[in-house]
Structures are given as structure tokens and as C-alpha cells.
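Side project, low priority. Logging it here so it doesn't get lost.
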Amino acid sequence: MSLSKRKSTIGKFALLSMTFAAVFSFNNIIMNNIEIGISAAPMFFIATIFYFIPFCLIVAEFVSLNKTSEAGVYAWVKSSLGGRWAFMSAYTYWFVNLFFFTSLLPKVIAYASYAFLGYEYMFTPLTTAFFSTILFALATYISTNGAKLLGPIISLTSSLMLLLTLSYIVLAGGALWGGIQPANPITIEAMTPTFNWTFLGIITWIFMAAGGAESVAVYVNDIKGGHKSFVKVIIVAGIFIGVLYSVGSLLANVFVSREALKFTGGSVQVFEGLAKHYGWSVIFMNRFVGIVSFTAMLGSLLMWTATPVKIFFAEIPKGIFGEKTVKLNKHGVPARAAWIQFLIVIPLMFIPTLGSDTVQELMSTIINMTAAASMLPPLFIMIAYLNLRLKLDHLPRDFRMGSRWMGICTVSLLIVIFTIGFFASTFPTGANILTIIFYNVGGIVLFLGYAWWKYSQYEKKLKLQQVTEVLTP
């Protein structure tokens, strides 16, 4: 759709709401608190200022450069690095989603037990992987056959999650004001990060939590007021989310100690502690928070089961994959590709169980890998942006992130941080060496190697067609 025929229909508040829904999750506060305690509080705000906002502006510049492309990742990278790297970038977004499922599925199961039982029923890692397989099969079937209620459900649950977060901050702050001694002391020393290899690996979780900018920035041409309004809203949204993450992290251990929190049900645990302090019904609180979290994560699971598959296979050039693989069913979803995705995710779900004695260890392994893998797509975009400002800065666009040298210096710093974080997360200290080799390293090499080979085959096919056309009279 051309911009001349396109109407700006998104208001500033709507964009602010979409940004919050795309980026914020209370569970991110818990995951990072488990790993680095309340030192996550300042790191969240730093990540917001030095990553989320600059990355939003980088994507906004790519959108401005590719006005008629509807701001797809493939088009952004292609405009700077060409077709092969554009395909690799689009592929990594789908590839990262595979690991996202392995961290999301166990959480859905855990919050389902809170929603229906009022407490978390503890499964072994193998049993968790087994039930995750059944749940993912069901999600794949539903998502490929249409899920019309997803939008309203996700909108409702994101609103409830914001209300829960603000309520927790106010009530936990009130408890501190009333003289409660927090389960873990809130001190400057506790908030000061320990800069070592382990911390560098965990910081990727912080960046992952602040991620989602690329999904919001695609609306830069739809917002009333254009790029100027977008930049203002995204900065306000980024600061608001950063403050929310930071304050939430600071108060995460008011009622429950960091050592007692779990990856799978930590969000419910902190509200359980809040309920005990104020004398409210624990079972009611657990079920309410469990229902909100379960519904939100189930909706997210259904949405992400089909959407990335559809975007990836619809965006890339025809001919890279077979016609049956990319064929859309009557609901507009490439069903065969979705089931191929299912068959790939299941081994990724079971492999970490081999080196995990508990679900907590299982979640630590797969969330760590999800964080590492999630850094690949923005890394591709950053490299493409660096090349844009270095070699193609003459290309016309309505919006630029400052001067040429400001853009180069900003993105270069981000690339260095992301590269270090990626390697630190891929090779975490204390992890099972076999898991690192076969899961962390092997998974990335296998999937990216396959993508490189697939595009090479596509190029050979194109050259053969060109030669045939030339020789054909």
C-alpha cells in the first residue's frame, strides 16, 4: 500500500498501549530478580535508555527508508545488505521463536495449575516436556484453524497485567512505608551489579525484556503526526516501561526472598506474599493472578504459534521453500509450515531435560538460550544499520537518528554490547558442557547453517533459470 493512499489512524495513546503490550511483562521482573536480585532495577532502566529507545529510532529510520514495504525485517536489511542477509535476518526471527516456545510452554502449564488448583503442582523436567508437547500440539491445531478471540483476550489480559503491576508497586511500597522488613534488604550494595562473565550472560535477559521495538515501529507511518509523534511517544513509552521494570524489580523481594522465587510461578509467589501480609485470601489471590497469567500466556502461545510462521514464509521470495510448505489454508495460515515448526520445537524441548534434575534447572537452561538466540535478529538489524550509515547514508529518507557519526557511534556501541552478551549467554558459567555444545552452539550452527545453504540453493536455481531464458530462442 502506498503512503499516498494510506490514512494515519493510530493515535498517540493507542501507540503507547501497543508499546506496553509488546514490551512489558511482569514475569520478566521475576526472571531477572532470580538471577541478579534487585541489581536488575538499575539495569532495566539503563537497557531502556541505551537500547530500547535507540533501537526504536533505528527501526523508525529503516521504516522511513522502506515506505512501501510495510516495514518488514526482510525489506529493512535488504535495503542495506542485500537479499542473502535479508533472508538470514527474517529467518532468525522465526528461528528465535522456536526457542521462545521452549521457555513459554512450561510457564503456561505452571500458571494453569495456579489458576485451577491455587498452587503449583510440581512435575519432573521430563513430565513437563511431555505435557508441553501435548499443549503445543493443541496450540498448533487451534492457531492454524483460526483464533478470532485472541485480540480481545490479549488486550484484556495486558490491561489486567498493568493493573496488577501498578497495584503491587503501590501496595508493596505501602508495606515498606509501614515499616515491614523486606525479605531481601534494599540497599545500594544490593543494587550494584557484579560485573563478571555470569552477569554479562544474564544481561541478555534484560535486553530481551526490553525487546519488542521492531513490532511497534512498523506503525511509524500509521500514527497521526508521523515520525515526530512516533519519536515522542516511543521515548515516553520507553521511559514509562523502564521505570515500571525498575521500580518493580526494586520491590520484588519485599514479601518473598530472591532464593525462594521460581521461574515457572514466581509472579504468583510475590502476590501470594502480598496477600499474606495484608491478610487476604491466599488461594483467591493465587487463582486470580494464575488466571490472568495463564490466559495471557496461552493467548501469547496461540498468537506466536502461527503469526511468525505466516510472516516469515509470506515475506521471503517465492521459490526458497516448496509450494506446499508456504501454501496458506482457508484461515490464511501456512498450516504445513506450522506443523514442521512443531516437529522442530519438540526435540528442543526434550534435549535440555537430559542435563536438568529439576524444572528450575530446565527453565534456567532454556531461558538462557532463548535470551542468547533473541539477540541475533536485532544484531542483524544493527549491522545493516551500521552499513547504511557508513556506505549508503545518501539514500533519501524522512527520518534519521541524528547525524551520520551519531548513528555510527550509537549502533557500534550496541553491536559491541550485544556481541559480548550473546557469547556470554551462549557459554554460561556452570552449565552442563554437553548441553552447551549440543543445544546452545549446535542449535545455532545447525539452523543458521541450514538457512545459508537454503538461500545458496535458491541463488543457484535463479542463475539456472536466467541461463535457460538466455539460451531459449
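Brief comment: The CA atoms of residues 110 and 265 lie 6 Å apart.
Revisit when time allows.
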